[in-house]
Amino acid sequence: MPWDLLFDPLFRLPFFTGLVFAVVLPVLGLYLRMREEWLAALGFAHLGGAGGVIGSLTGIPPLLAALGVAGGGVAARGLVRRAGNDLYAIMILGGWAAMILGAQFSHHARTLAQTLVDGQLYFTGLEQLLTALAFAAVFAVAMPWLSRRLLRARLFPGHDRANGQPVAALGLGFNILVAAGVALASMAMGVMAAFALMFVTPWVAFALAPGWRAAVVLSALLGVLAYLVAFVIALVGDLPFGPAFVAIVVGLALLRLLPRR
Questions:
Q1: What is the 3-state secondary structure (H, E, C) of 109-162?
Q2: Core vs surface per residue 191-218: b (16+ CB within 10 A) or e
Q3: Taking the CB of the first residue and of the last residue of the chain, which one, N or C, has fewer CB atoms within 10 A?
């Protein structure tokens, strides 16, 4: 088996690109689960994938187009007062249809759509790494400020309204952060890989962690662990990264069988 590939400089940029998302996305997914909007991850992922395909057809950089279409999903969510996952299900269906239909109009779009499905992380380069690091920097600055307010809005929903706090703006800001992260990760790791990071690892951490801070740490650790194992298996076994990663993450779901605290 070609174990020397693990140390090939060709795969260093893809490795660190995926590693950044493996740390950040599970934490975002944890807050989505707290808000009972976990399907947002898959909705924004499909919109980002559709945006990438649309960008390849129109001459717009796919990363920029993915962010733009995902941002449109955030705007649509802001117009809907009722909480829940209904709108995100529509995003999934619409994004999937646009991605598959758009792929039929050019070879480049078809290749990009297949990459989004397979999650071929190893084709990423410096542009994806820089955007991942930029997003991680924004996350590191914004999330500590958002975290306390998101928790308070969940545990004491009447507090902010009673004190005249902009509750809608808080949700909008968080959704922008989620949509940007998912869109960027989908373009780098694949649609389903991004969703797996944001759904399964927080799902396990939510059940096993004794407290919120522990859940944040545990979800990030599980994301990194699954990523490292999948990166090695997919690279050495010459497998598409996305399916290999999702398979490993699904295996982590067995940890839910452990005694809960």
A1: HHHHHHHHHHCCHHHCCHHHHHHHHHHHHHHHHHHHHHHHHHHHHHHCHHHHHH
A2: bbbbbbbbbbbbbbbbebbeeeeebbeb
A3: N
Check residue 1 and give its pLDDT: 47
pLDDT tens digits along 18-43:
999 999 999 999 888 888 888 888 88
- pLDDT, tens digit (0-9, with 9 covering 90-100), for 105-154: 888 888 888 878 777 788 788 888 899 999 999 999 988 888 887 877 77
Say yes or no: domain 3-257 is CATH 1.10.3470.10: yes
Q: Residue 175: count other Cβ atoms within 10 Å of its Cβ.
A: 22
pTM comes to 0.84
**Residue 253: Cβ-neighbour burial (10 angstroms; 0-12, 13-18, 19+):** middle
Query: Could you state, in order of their start, the residue ranges of all structural domains in the chain?
Result: 3-257
Residue 33's CB is within 10 A of a number of other CB atoms, namely 19
- Measured between alpha carbons, how far is 138 from 42 in angstroms, rounded to an integer? 21
Structure tokens that stand for 104 in this block = 């039929």
Lowest mean pLDDT among 67-71, 95-99, 112-116, 213-217: 112-116
Look up residue 61 and give its DSSP letter: -
User: Of the given ranges (61-65, 81-85, 136-140, 141-145), which has the lowest mean pLDDT?
Assistant: 81-85
Give the integer Cα–Cα distance in Å for 142 and 135.
10
- For the chain, the straight-line distance linking the first and the last C-alpha, in angstroms and rounded, comes to 41
